[in-house]
Amino acid sequence: MDILSTRGLDLWYGDNQALKHIDMDIPERQVTALIGPSGCGKSTFLKTLNRMNDLVPAVRVEGLVTYRERDIYAPGTDVTWLRRQVGMVFQKPNPFPMSIYDNIAYGPRIHGVRSKARLDDIVERSLKGAAIWDEVKDRLKKSALSLSGGQQQRLCIARALAVEPDVLLMDEATSALDPISTSKIEDLITELKEHYTIIIVTHNMQQATRISDTCAFFLLGELIEFGQTTQMFSMPRDKRTEDYITGRFG
Amino acid sequence: MDALEAKYAAAKRYSETAMGLVFLLCGVLAVAFVLLISAYLILSGLPAIREVGLLDFLFGPVWAPTHKTEPQFGILPFILTSVYGTAGAVAVGVPVGFLTAMFLSKLAPRRLAAVVRTAVDLLSGIPSVVYGLVGMTVLVPAVRRVFRLPSGATLLAAILVLSVMILPSIISVSETALNAVPREYEEASLALGATETETWFRVSAPAASSGIAAAVVLGIGRAIGEAMAIMMVAGNVANMPGLFKSVRFLTTAIASEMSYAGVGSLQRSALYSIALVLFLFIMLINVILNLWFKNKREG
């Protein structure tokens, strides 16, 4: 079952075409990795899926992007609804300058949860879901900025989980972290895919092989190859994919 | 090295030292003025307070310095007027200024923002006597008509003028603070499904709160020290303050009576005492402001 699909997706930043005719079907409750050299359009593609690209001035999107068979670029689409379904974790950990508790409770509060008991419950569940509860449960009122980088990133994952999304986008979410924090987050991603569809952008080929089920290789705004990760890394269909994953460029 | 060259080098050294002294002198000058003014105010302000009595002076409700038999020197009306007037100006000016800053920082198209910013800069450059003049000829009659008062020269008119006068500093300081909020915070909020307005008020504004607080304190400092404009619109009567009453501020009390208070009279030295009280108020606000900025730098 495919949860997100694109058909003939083109995207321009001004006159510069960043995505060229992308057709892709992203399977539900799997980890999909987007790989490719810098500037290949993988982050741009990721951000079309929750319309964070809307924030970029002079961006133009053509083609079809559907989430659960709904055209998310149709006029009248409620972007806040979409972003609630399709959550995002950024490259640089970006907790709000608030307490740990308020960081997690931010999303639910925005979406109208007022009851203290329910918020407490959501905060605990989200922090447990992001495997950081044990580390922070005694200091929920402390500033989130007092956490280490790896903890901050897991907090950001917990914050994204708190609004009960369906899909989680991760834009190089481990590239700013040390190896131990990275492996914690990789373990976490593997656990999370039981309940969520996860799409990650990564520069780390090993990471893609370790945690992804499906893999997409982008080059210069084009989707070169898309398929099972094991298949792609053992028997790439395209010469360019082979060159990239064997480290001949990129 | 020949003799001429050595002489040249020595001359250069002297001129360097001399310039260093000039710079130092200019720096010391500012300090000297502050000390001089403080000392002068304290020395000339204390005698009247001693004669009237500190409590009677600060909390006396009647100011009648020229009364033939029983002159009274209570400045409570002035203190309260200054406090209410400043509070009122902040209550009106801060929300407007803050929202303007929000508009400039987050919402306004670049061209429009430039126009608004230029207007705000011009606003801060208008002399206070012009504010007074416009207030007197436009605002005061309007207040009189709208509220059906015998005279429009009231605390309300003064508050309105003051709130416009403090707008520029509030806008520019708040805007700087809002611009300094990292874009990542806002993106995180939007990605959670918050609208832009929710993001600005719940993430950007709290993240900029210390800068916005500084803007408020700055506005208070501006408002409490203003004299000319409010003298022209507040009616200048030593009443206990009321929104629709003619009132006199600490500043305007000094400005309006100094010209006719007899040299050596108690009235004149009481005016110095008022200046001392005002000075202490403003010092207090500056200390708060400095502590704020210091904390922010260190925190």
Write up what this structure looks like.
The complex is a heterodimer of chains A (250) and B (299). Chain A is an alpha/beta fold. Chain A has a domain of 173 residues: P-loop containing nucleotide triphosphate hydrolases (Rossmann fold), CATH 3.40.50.300. Chain A has ten helices and ten strands. In chain A, the strands form two sheets. Chain A has a six-stranded mixed sheet with strand order 6-7-8-3-9-10, sandwiched between helices. In chain A, helix 7 links the parallel strand 7 and strand 8. In chain A, helix 4 crosses helix 6 and helix 6 packs parallel to helix 7. The longest helix of chain A has 14 residues. Chain B has one domain: MetI-like fold (Orthogonal Bundle). Chain B is 78% helix and 1% strand. Chain B has twelve helices and two strands, in the order H-H-E-E-H-H-H-H-H-H-H-H-H-H. Chain B has a two-stranded antiparallel ribbon with strand order 1-2. The chains are: A alpha/beta (250), B mainly alpha (299). At the A-B interface, helix 2, helix 3 and helix 6 of A face helix 7 and helix 8 of B.
Quick one: how many beta strands of chain B?
2
For this structure, what is the CATH class of chain B?
Mainly Alpha
Percent range for β-strand residues of chain B: under 5%
The major β-sheet of chain B equals:
2 strands, antiparallel
Which class of the domain at 2-94 and 166-245 in chain A in CATH terms? Answer: Alpha Beta
